[in-house]
Amino acid sequence: MLAVLASVLAAVPLRAQHTYPLNLDPTVRDGFEHFYNLDYDGAMQRFEAVLNAHPQDPMANAYVLMDTIFRELYRVDLLDTTYYARENFLSSGRHIQIPEDVRKQIEQLTNHAIDLADARIKANGNDKDAYFARGYAKGMHAAFSTLADHSYTGAARQGLSSRNDSEQVLKLDPDYVDAKMAVGIQQFAVASLPRFVRMLVGIAGIGGNKEQGLNLLRECAAHGTVSRVEAQTALSLFLRHDKRYPEAYAVAQKLAAQYPHDFLFRIEEANLMKDAGHGPEAAAIYQRVLDDAAKPGYYTEARLQLAYFGLGETQRGQGDVAGAAKSYLSASRQPNCSDWMRRRAELNAGMMLDKLKQRDAALAQYRLAAAEGGDQSQASDAHKYMKSPYTGS
Question: What is the mean pLDDT of the chain?
């Protein structure tokens, strides 16, 4: 036992040489534990304590930025990967309402983290930690721009800038594994974009390679310090994007086992089973998630609409029209459901009710989905089915 402990303690200084030192701070690590269990408020308390202790540290600002962004994305039902596992989410017509004060905070935190890192780089052009912190902040902001604003141009350019910073880190220290995440994400993303889109967003001529990107994410997932879980999440998403479901499921299953109180990791297991065509298995996982949600305190803040909607999609694929209608209705009635998800669930509930020959009930759902004000991305289809009943699958 003493030999093992000595080995661990001896490895800490070595590890600290190849990651941003603040990543090993106990309060930071505790903050990430809360973050990965979707306790965003608990994580924020810890990250803000770190920021108060290190106000001029760009990475301390980046932790708060990360939590602010993902807490908001979760609030508006944007962290279910079913939504963005395919490219068409960028043209879905969805308008996301982000409060102006939250947007302002995200911009201020991003700019301040970058400014602090810039000052350090100006003073020392070989400051690998400053390059990493700057790239990390840019990468987080790029993720927000992509998911919340459906931005091609701004997000692509900022993501590329994040990659450039991370590549500079790796030139200075090839063992700085955390930096491989941004490079891996960009390698995969750029390789997935059609050439005309690269030209459109101003990154024509930038190289990309899917397998290299995936391998970098695998290395980061295995050996990273601050980006280990994020790399696994991106890896699972990209494998799902390419329909490599068994590999993606293995990653998602590992995350769900490590963080059983993370609602998103749990439903991702079910999502992947559904996409792979294993309907009964997917339905069983969704149901287990819902059963656990009924246990007091099991999840910090479950977005049950995501599980109910996924279950409805699975039941629909299995020909259980009545079950699908019930699940879609349950999704639409969750008190913390975003307007977009609610209307999407109402539209699909109406479609299933039409198939059950319950026309009046279907019309009531279509009217809700097409109501004036708020999200209008489902209105066109809802109006179409008001005129004539849905008859598809």
Answer: 90
From CA 316, how far away is CA 345, in angstroms rounded?
13
Task: Give the number of other Cβ atoms within 10 Å of residue 263's Cβ.
Answer: 27
Element housing 163 (H / E): helix 153-172
Whole-model pTM over 0.85: yes
Q: What is the C-alpha to C-alpha distance for residues 180 and 189, in angstroms, rounded to an integer?
A: 14
Q: In this predicted model, what pLDDT tens digit does every residue of 268-284 receive, in sequence order?
A: 999 999 999 999 999 99
Cβ distance 343 to 377 under 8 Å?
A: yes
Q: Which residues of 57-79 are buried (b: 16+ CB within 10 A; e: fewer)?
A: bbbbbbbbbbbbbbbbbbbbbbb
Q: What is the pLDDT of residues 22-81, one digit of tens each?
A: 999 999 999 999 999 999 999 999 999 999 999 999 999 999 999 999 999 999 988 887
3-state secondary structure (DSSP) of residue 207: coil
The pLDDT, as a whole number, for residue 63 is 98
**228-241 helix and 245-258 helix, angle to the nearest 10 degrees:** 150
Check the CA dihedral 243-245-250-253 and report its sign.
positive
* Rounded-to-integer distance, Cα 184 and Cα 218, Å: 9
Tell the residue number behind the tokens 């052009």, with chain if given: 125
Q: Are residues 63 and 31 in contact, defined by beta-carbon separation less than 8 angstroms?
A: yes
267, 80 Cβ separation under 8 angstroms: yes
Closest-CA residue to 332 (of 319, 321, 317, 343): 343
Backbone angles phi and psi of 278, in degrees to 5: -100, 70
Could you tell me the fold of the domain covering 303-393? 1.25.40
Asked if 342 contacts 305 with a C-beta cutoff of 8 angstroms, the reply is yes
Are 274 and 310 in contact by the 8 Å Cβ rule? The answer is: yes
**Domain boundaries along the sequence of the chain:** 1-242, 303-393
Residue 173: is it exposed, middle or buried by C-beta count within 10 angstroms (0-12/13-18/19+)?
middle
| CA–CA separation, 269 and 246 (whole Å) | 11
Question: Under CATH, which architecture does the 1-242 domain have?
Answer: Alpha Horseshoe (1.25)
Q: Quickly tell me which residue has 């026309």 as its tokens.
A: 359
